[in-house]
Amino acid sequence: MSLWTSRDAARATGGRSTVAWEADGVSIDTRTIQPGDLFVALKAARDGHEFVAQALEKGAAAALVTHVPEGVAEDAPLLIVDDVQTALEALGRAGRKRTKARVVAITGSVGKTSTKEMLAEVLSDQGRTHASVASYNNHWGVPLTLARMPADTEYAVIEIGMNHPGEIAPLAKMAQPHVAIVTTVAAAHLEAFENIEGIAAEKAAICEGLEPRGTAILNGDLDTYPILEAAARAKTARIVTFGESSRCHHRATDVHIASGATVVQARAWRTPLLYKVGAEGRHYAINALAVLAAVFALKADRGRAVLALAGWSAVSGRGQRMTVVLDPVDRHLALELIDDAYNANPTSMAAALEVLAAADPRDGLGRIAKGRRIAILGDMKELGPEAEALHAGLVELPSMRKIDVVHCVGPLMKALHAALPPAHRGMWHEETKPMLRGLRGRIDGGDVILVKGSLSMGLSRVVDAIRKMGHPDTQYDE
Fold first, then answer.
1. Which of 24, 130, 193, 310 is most enclosed, with most CB atoms within 10 A?
2. Closest CA to 270 of 284, 251, 292
3. Does 456 belong to an annotated binding site?
4. Does residue 469 or residue 45 have the better pLDDT?
5. Cβ pair 196, 347 in contact under 8 A
């Protein structure tokens, strides 16, 4: 059964199809388009209409456009609409309306993508599950995810993000979730908000899309929790809190970060609970409680969910941990790499540094007898006028005392570099490229290396450089 027919898509969007067609998927990118996809010609850095001919050559079933693009035949399979973005939103709403899926929407300053991935993996063990790809969580990502949702989906997990006020509520209303999760509220995107309370109000707006008798799963540890609670109560939602404080319904009582996993003792449903998450980090452990609360709200099997959590692991750029073997002959000569180069703000930086501090370097493997904990940190963007102080303040984190060397990249990270004790102060460069020079000489077998920064800093190049130094051990490369 096709995902969209020309008739259904035209009815949803109010558009006109030039010929009859059937599509098995929806794509906005000719680099990843698959034969049978409907190509959506969005306007972004470039006008998607410039790529319609290429999409059709690659086997697209049709293209969603405002006009017949140059170089495309008049009888080509097209769905012509007044505005492509508006039509995509209409297609998303139609995709949501035609399914009986139980829908979860997730937002938060930190952890929304990993929580989405965690919940999707847990639910996929129990039914046909559809989820956002990567971080498709904005004004085009949410409708695209909904438009891609098969009609027979049983569970859907939709990630919703924001950069500015007023973005979350419309997307939440489009998703119409039965369950809404707010992972946390932190100092991210402060350039667009007056204060942390403004960020909390925007995150709380996810509740505006809740279906009647819906459930709001909220981080009860937050100082801004009352703002989240008020928004949920305004929708008469059932509220479930999670976190580490005694007031939380789902509460972690002990979190142990081990090699390759985090083991948690908790209380949920007034019952002692022991579970393991297949990734290292307190933040993963706490957000797993939100996942379990969502499973309960969806009336899925909690026992199976607890077992499935152990098999989940972090994705590339978001805390993925791997072993890199530096010598193809002596496979003991290896280091551990923590790839967290996709995003950064003070809260996620603190969580990642805690993971590094808990890591166990190995001695006696390389040129340097003692294995080290090494951090390569890039600027945290969009923090507003307090940005330099927030960067320098990282030096006060308890985990910093256990880190041997901190290298810094970016104008803002210069503040941290200056605040570091000389014994732990590594290199500082304004850009990433100079950090690559001589990198092999600054790391060694037995080291554990964290790479973290905002995506625009390009620290993924450091990750790639370290991986290419040797031969990643596929046994550990998750």
1. 130
2. 251
3. no
4. 469
5. no
Q: What pLDDT sits at residue 478? A: 30
Is there a binding annotation on residue 114? Answer: yes
Per-residue confidence (pLDDT) for residue 39, from 0 to 100: 98
Q: Is 14 annotated as a binding residue?
A: no
Give the Cα separation of 132 and 200 in Å (integer). Answer: 23
Q: Which residues contact 292 (CB under 8 A, 6 or more apart)?
A: 250, 268, 273, 275, 302, 305, 306, 309
108 among annotated binding-site residues: yes
Q: What single letter denotes the amino acid at residue 273?
A: L
348 is in an annotated binding site: no
Q: Which residues are registered as beta bridge partners of 304?
A: none
Whole-Å CA distances, 87 to 69, 80, 83, 90, 459 = 17, 9, 6, 5, 36
Q: Are 335 and 326 in contact (CB under 8 A)?
A: yes
Percent of the residues in the chain that have a pLDDT greater than 90, as a whole number: 80
- Helix (H) / strand (E) element for 451: namely strand 448-452
Domains of the chain: 4-84 (3.40.1390.10), 99-309 (3.40.1190.10), 320-472 (3.90.190.20)
DSSP string for residues in 290-323: HHHHHHHHTT--HHHHHHHHTT--PPTTTTEEEE
Q: Per this entry, what is the length of the chain?
A: 478
Question: Is 454 within any annotated ligand binding site?
Answer: no
Q: Is 236 annotated as a binding residue?
A: no
